[in-house]
Amino acid sequence: MPKPQKVAAVKELREKLESSDAALLAEFTGLKVGEMMQVRRSLADAGTEFGVVKNTLGRIAATEANMGDLIPLLRGSTAIAFVRGDAVLAAKSLDEVAKKYPALVVKGGILGGKVLDAGQTKALASVESREVLLAKLAGMLVSPIQKMGSLLYAPLGNLGNALYALQQQRGSEAPAEAAAPEAAAPEAAAPEAPAEAAASDDTPIENSSGDAGTEV
After folding, report:
1. What is the pLDDT of residues 58-91, one digit of tens each?
2. DSSP class of 157
3. How many CB atoms lie within 10 A of CB 25?
4. Which of 123, 33, 120, 125 is nearest to 86 (CA)?
5. What is the pTM of this model?
6. Which CATH superfamily does the domain covering 4-127 fall into?
7. What is the side-by-side strand order in the sheet with 22-27?
8. Which of 64, 101, 153, 213 has a Cα-to-Cα distance from 168 of 20 to 30 A?
């Protein structure tokens, strides 16, 4: 029957594998204790926990976590970097400390359920970080959007100018149209003249001697 300490260690290791976004494995034969502490600090700055793992317990934990493909990498001295976050950043940090301490040799890892060999893990370190990729993508998107904005603004500006001119034109025409009925008012009084003429027909006509004539 397994010892309680081993059972607890396997459980902890399995939970770390399951909760990590990636796991990077390295061999550390010949690495000094002080150097191992420096490696842990460097990876901790990248949000990665780095620890030594016993291969027998690692194989059990990998099997329980449905990561049996990791078992071939669990040979020799093994330390695992449990990545929570950007796997590229963690791979870069591991690659940098491996260059500083040649005794630390990358063996491989697992990312997105896929096992990576040593070459693929090192290639992961050469990929640009998520922040850099997002910045480049943003730059690629901003330029076309600015050009599109210029193209859209031009017709809208022309339309606005046209509407303003039309409004000004209608405003200037309105007083002239309002004055037109006032000008026609005197002409409407002209038909009253025949009434005066009709009234003169009832008035007696004086003759040349100044006497009033008779009505006809």
Report:
1. 999 999 999 999 999 999 999 999 999 889 889 9
2. H
3. 25
4. 125
5. 0.60
6. Ribosomal protein L10, N-terminal RNA-binding domain (3.30.70.1730)
7. 48-52, 79-83, 22-27, 105-111, 114-117
8. 153
